[in-house]
Design brief:
By secondary structure, the protein is of the alpha+beta class. 31% of the residues lie in helices and 12% in strands.
Length: 135
């Protein structure tokens, strides 16, 4: 299963000597937001990479069928639209929501994969010290 890292993960827990190298978006309300992070000045998000697995939308005439803009966004996925994830979204995907999801699915054990973290660590050419601290 995938975890949804908290939006403030790197603001709160990243080694202070790397904080100026990993930028998290902040909303108008001053709270960290999920989405594209910037690492060493380069946008780093797995969102676009995962779009290929989302439900296709009608393709606008000027886009090809593989364009991320022709697919439903992650937050609007079919499973989210079903209402089955409501409890998890309300809890901001916290640890208790993970356990609740396992109970719903009948799972006793899970291998947990990062979501945001996979996209960040899969970049070529990243400074090894930054990669190590993100991991």
């Amino acid at each position: 299963m995938h975890i949804m890292e908290p939006a403030d993960l790197f603001i709160k827990y990243l080694d202070p000597k790397f904080r100026d190298r990993v930028i998290t978006r902040v909303g108008r309300d001053g709270r960290p937001k999920r989405g594209v992070r910037t690492v060493d000045g380069m946008p780093a998000s797995s969102d676009l990479e995962f779009q290929q697995y989302r439900k296709p939308l009608r393709v606008p005439p000027k886009l090809d069928k593989y364009s991320p803009a022709s697919r439903q966004s992650l937050s609007g996925s079919r499973i989210a639209a079903s209402g089955r994830l409501g409890f998890a979204m309300e809890r901001d995907y916290d640890a208790e929501a993970q356990v609740m999801a396992m109970e719903m699915e009948g799972g006793d054990i899970a291998v947990v994969f990062p979501t945001d973290g996979l996209g960040l660590l899969a970049r070529d050419g990243m400074d090894p010290a930054v990669a190590a601290t993100l991991a």
